[in-house]
Design a protein that fits this description.
The structure holds two protein chains of two kinds.
Chain A lengths: L4 E3 L2 E4 L5 E6 L6 E7 L5 E8 L2 E4 L8 E4 L6 E5 L8 E8 L7 E2 L3 E5 L1
Parallel strand pairs in A: 2-11
Antiparallel strand pairs in A: 1-3, 3-8, 4-5, 4-9, 5-6, 7-8, 9-10, 9-11
Chain B lengths: L3 E3 L4 E4 L4 E7 L4 E9 L6 E7 L2 E5 L2 E6 L4 E6 L8 E9 L11 E6 L1
Parallel strand pairs in B: 2-10
Antiparallel strand pairs in B: 1-3, 3-8, 4-5, 4-9, 6-7, 7-8, 9-10
The chains are: A mainly beta, B mainly beta.
């Protein structure tokens, strides 16, 4: 069974540009989560999808971030326009039920220059 | 005050040593206590999971939770070089089950 996969693994963009990160959860997992780790800080929760619906987006930093999960399968996280402080590693995780083990992807390392 | 405090280390020990990793938390609503292990350039993977106070053992690993003092520990017996990784303390409340991560402790086990 394939794990959670994230694309790209690394992205370097200039300030002001747009970047879209993608997450493919494990097949059959209704719950999908986005997290971010800024250098030297903790991994922080961004938002939680149940199928295609946003269950909790309390961790989204501002309106430059837009997450979608059309059809309840893969999810995208768009940052537009990117700022320097958006640099970090973005993780995606999924699980079948919200109280079951969540499996993480390898992360996308975003560098904004 | 951060919700979850964890010493980032690094903690360097010789192979075979007993390792003690700790963290403290401030949110009384936390009921589930998880430890994740993260290797370099990889995502976190769930290592141990306990509910409420008490001990849980799994092979060489023992997780310990003391809710009265809001203190969480992970012990590794007979540590191996393959245990070298970052260990993330991550409690969660019963309502959301979404973990609140500590900064992680970097562990280095040298042969």
């Amino acid at each position: 069974e394939a794990g959670v996969t994230q694309f790209p693994s690394h992205s370097v963009i200039e300030k002001g540009q747009t970047v879209t990160l993608r997450c493919d959860p494990i097949s059959g997992h209704d719950n999908l989560y986005w997290y971010r780790r800024v250098m030297g800080k903790e991994i922080k929760f961004l938002l939680h999808f149940v199928k295609e619906s946003k269950q909790d987006e309390s961790g989204m930093p501002n309106n430059r971030f837009l997450a979608e999960r059309t059809g309840g399968t893969y999810s995208t996280l768009k940052v537009q326009p990117a700022e320097l402080e958006d640099s970090g590693v973005y993780f995606c995780a999924s699980n079948r039920g919200s109280n079951t083990e969540a499996f993480f992807g390898q992360g996308t390392r975003l560098t904004v220059v | 005050q951060k919700e979850v405090e964890q010493d980032p280390g690094p903690l360097s020990v010789p192979e075979g040593a007993i390792v003690s990793l700790n963290c403290t938390y401030s949110n009384s609503a936390f009921q589930y206590f998880m430890w994740y292990r993260q290797y370099s350039r990889k995502g976190p993977e769930l290592l141990m999971y306990t509910y409420s106070s008490g001990n849980k053992e799994d092979g060489r690993f023992t997780a310990q939770v003391d809710k009265s003092s809001k203190y969480i520990s992970l012990f590794i017996r007979d540590s191996q070089p393959s245990d070298s990784a970052t260990y993330l303390c991550a409690p969660a409340s019963g309502g959301s089950y979404i973990p609140t991560f500590g900064r992680g402790t970097s562990l280095i086990v040298h042969p």
